[in-house]
Amino acid sequence: MKYNLKALLALSALLLLASAPFVGSETGAPDAAFDDITHIFFSAGCVDCWPYVEDVMIPTLQAQGLAEKPELHDYTVPDERQLLLQVADSIDLPRSIADSLYAFVPTENGTLVILGHVPPELITEVVNSPETPSKLVLWQPEMHHEPTEYRLWAWAGDVQVFAIDTPYEEALPKAIEAAGPLPISLANLGQLLPAVLITGLFDSVNPCAFAVILLLLAFLFTLRKSRSRILQLGFVYILMIFLVYFAIGLGLLRAVRFSSDPHFVARAGSWLLIGLGTINLIEYFFPKFPIKLHMPKFAGARTNELIKQATLPATIGAGLLVGLCTFPCSGGVYVSIITLLNAKTTMAWGLTYLGIYNVMFVLPLIVILLAAGNRATAKTWARWEREHALGIRLWYGIVMVLLGAGMLLWVIR
Question: Total structural domains in the chain?
């Protein structure tokens, strides 16, 4: 038993270590040289960005003793995009504060973040003001016409919008004193926490993982295993699903962070959720429809073989297999919430939400494990699941469509 427990702990550690590159490469601070270098990011396809940077921004900053040797980056190049994300995360810049042009300017007081095409006189005013806080976003989004407004954000409250002729000394106190829930904040609790809790809980009732744990319990009771042994193997199975699903989420979160338009990716994720939900509905009404969101047959057969062995290594294997192969059942929900996290919060908060999501994902499995106290109950539940599998898929599809539509209408803006 001690050997098996050590093997389980070692396997868990390996899974977490395997996912560590996804975390470390995203959350690590940029090179220390960033402290002294102005980094400017824009797309090579932005025809207005280069003239503005060369003729307006850099001369204005250099006239104030800043940006002596600025580094320019094309964020459509993957490595440069990665650097942009690292620099933004190092100062906790919310992902939703975004524009076609970014300048991270080290100052004597801290960091000035310039977004968009800010008029040179406003840049000069901000740099020279003794009241400018240690971290400030100065934002002017208009590119092709005369600017009518500018925006300030001082890492507190809402982004504040001012008419372009509003003096900076008048606008700054309002930006500093801004308070209240942040629609584009670091945590974005009001929008994201309910979405994470609801989708994680809903995702857990996917037909794949739900059916397999009932089958596992029924079989263990058939073998007349002790209650403690059943709980041990059941928790091992659930832990493996948690670790695998969490590792998959880390990989997806890293992949979507390469996008230059996180809101577009979030919208695409929501449409994917709607599309996969529609496939579930089609399968209910047209059972012979060729596309089915099921665990692959070979994986189902192999899982059945493993759980019938009723050993710790076999249960670990079953949990790993189900964690990997449950993706066709519910991957749309997972992808949609990950693209939403990418668009609406920072990497650190994204990882926190990802952990919460996966806890909710396995919570009903834990409840089932604890509630199925005898052989008759386990067999009854397993039989009920088989008899109502198609109906579960119907409601699963309906909720997927509604969740995707809700994210498009009320969360992603």
Answer: 2
